[in-house]
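Entry:
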Amino acid sequence: MRKYAIVLVVALVAFLGCFPVPTLTVTLESPANGSTVDSLTPILAWTCSESGASYRIQVASDGNFQNLVIDASNIGAPSYAVPSGKLSHDQAYYWRVNATKDGRTSDWSVYWSFKTPGGTAGTILVSATLDGSPWETAIGSGVVNYTLTGPKEHSSSTVPQTFTDLPQGTYTLGYNSGGPIGATLVSITPSATQSLSSGGSLTFTMNFKTQPAGSIWVNATLDGASWSGQLRYTLSGPYVDSSSSVPDSFSNCPAGTYTVGYTSRGPSGATLVSITPSPTQNLASGGTLTFTLNFHSQATSSIYVNANLDGSSWSGQVNYTISGPKTDSSYAVPESFGNLPAGTYTLQYNYGGPAGATLTSITPAPTRTLSSGGSITFTMNFSTQATGTIYVNATLDSSTWSGPVNYTIHGPKTDSSYSVPDTFGGLPPGTYTLSYSSGGPTGATPGSITPSPRQSLPAGGTLSFTMNFHSEATGTIYVNATLDGSPWETAIGSGAISYTIHGPITDSSSTVPDSFTGLPGGTYTLGYNSGGPIGATLTNISPRQNLPAGGSITFTMNFSSQAKGTVHVKATLDGTPWSGEVTYTLAGPYVDSKSYVPDMFSDCPSGSYTLSYTSGGPYQSVFDGITPSPTQNLAAGGSITFTMQFHFQSGILPPMAPE
């Protein structure tokens, strides 16, 4: 019996050996890739192709898993609660998992990322002053438009204004327009750029200064002599008003550009010929300016408008405009326009006229001069002619095709359609052009328009446009990047990038590596827009390439690192070097803050940097400023120094200790 059992075991082992062992795989489940978790102790979950496995999880601050913050093994369940103290606020993390069972260990899963929530929200107050006193927006006082940019952006037209629930970071107040009427913005204090700490608060104050008010005078002349009387006009500019008589004056006007607009009335039987020295003038702060409305006495004149159809008088609906010293319009002929001042007038035909006819000319000319007390006549001449027809068709790989396609016909009459075949009738003769817009057979590319995209339609004749499409396999374009010869990819903290692919189809992206699929064959070029690895410069891009139908090509943007520089921060007390606790922020291509001097920031990319003092400094001292300037330019590989200057001032109470 024992012999039979041994034989059975051997046979079973041989039988099982004929079947391959299943592959052990891990699939990440939650949190979703790229999402933001709601705490610093999230639960990471996954699934496995087999039950009963043990797991190893790695969490890192980089996608290469060089900077591990968690490396935990022998996990018995497909989930892991991150312990407290492992993660930081407002930080991106990458994680992956593998499985072990029966002596088999799976490959690492694809890695996912998540972002932790920010710190405690803070508050920013935006206020304003006018000549040193608090000012607020109100009806009649003026409005102000400004924008707050930073980790979270806001805009408003009201002060004072409080913005809450703001994440920590560097914020800048940008003044757009407005403010107290007649005032000018002179500064934003304590600085236009400040750093908001987690759960903290800060204030931006826009400081305005009143400009001296000016005066505006409005006079009139009749045939060169001063004239006074009833005259309606408007004054527009920083100050807006109107009047019904001259002479008149407007006082307390803020500086700026003003325009006088004539409305009605004036000397009886006279016509306004000019406003001197100009209808629009600039008023300087505290200055004066004068507008003079000049009238001229003259007999009024008349204009007559008629029409002919094939050489015979015609009356009916037609839309036209007469422009000159006085502008008017009408919807019918014959028509007359009386009480017109002398000058040059032009007749413009808009639309309408005899059905089926075309305007051929305006006689004796479309522009004529009207003398004082005289009259002129414009005649619009129409001719009847047979209309024609245009047919639009399409082919796919030389065979007739019908379906949705968007195109427009331009010519003496313009029309459009969304399908083929289609017919356009009742068209006047002339030259027509077909323009393809979009659509057509799925997966096909527009080729030619035959016999020509531009053709002539004879009176009463026909013509045809045919749009020719051809099918082709689509290809793929890959875009990569290198930094100092090594592959580089966009990630939180590595730098952003913007580029565009130009060719038969144009597309853009802000990520590398990236791929573009479903592209028709043809010549493509990669255009770099901005960005790239922080502190690096683009040195070259793969040249123009031809994408074969169904094939693929790769563009590579090559960057090289710039030499890093150093920023030193020091302090003096009455001109003598001082060291101690003081809080400040460095803003620029690299952003950081410290609470002690002297100190320095190394590995800084080149660019413009601004140092902002926050608080602290020597006991019983006052902060004077930053030398040589609070904003300086750091050259590649160079160094700059900011020095905060304090001076001793007795009588300043020390800060109270917390209760």
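Confidence is low (pLDDT under 50) at residues 13-18.
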